[in-house]
Write a structure and sequence with these properties.
The protein has three helices and six strands. The chain is of the alpha+beta class and 156 residues long. Strands 1, 2, 3, 4, 5 and 6 form a six-stranded antiparallel sheet that branches. Strand 2 and strand 3 form a beta hairpin.
């Protein structure tokens, strides 16, 4: 068999494998990265002192409430549900909303697509067994429901 033919075939196979690996790496790069466990713990610690002894789930919601001149205003809710309690939950007293906002907003770095970073709500839910769920919403902002600007957090 001709050496040139074997060399050309091996080179073609190598090029195809390299292209396939690059495509697979790009697909992985487009996927959101999981949140850093330290960030999740920091968010939890920001509201945990306000939780009752028994709780079924606890969550924080960071909602965009106003867009003006490039600025985005946010409101932070910290909630929990007792076993058998109302699904709407109860507010957590003593929640450090500033820390919650900063850490949840900081999770944007885990979203590889710039468009994904323009969420209008982020809900981070915790379970007593240590599991969590993070969901982003992209609904239009209803400014008629915005609280006074003094209560909202701003991020440029």
């Amino acid at each position: 068999m001709n050496r040139s033919f074997v060399a050309a075939t091996l080179l073609a196979v190598l090029m195809l494998l390299t292209a396939a690996v690059r495509a697979q790496d790009k697909a992985k790069a487009d996927e959101p990265q999981p949140p850093d466990p330290k960030v999740l713990q920091t968010v939890f610690d920001a509201f945990a002192p306000g939780l009752p002894e028994k709780w079924e789930s606890a969550w924080v919601v960071v909602r965009e409430v106003r867009q003006a001149g490039g600025a985005r205003d946010y409101l932070v809710d910290c909630m929990y549900r007792e076993p058998g309690g109302d699904a709407a939950g109860k507010p957590i007293t003593g929640c450090d909303r500033k820390t919650v906002f900063e850490k949840v907003y900081g999770l944007n770095r885990n979203l590889p697509d710039q468009k994904q970073r323009y969420w209008t709500s982020a809900t981070l839910r915790y379970m007593p067994d240590g599991k969590f769920e993070l969901k982003y919403g992209y609904e239009p902002v209803d400014e008629s429901k915005a609280p006074p600007a003094a209560k909202a957090k701003k991020k440029q």
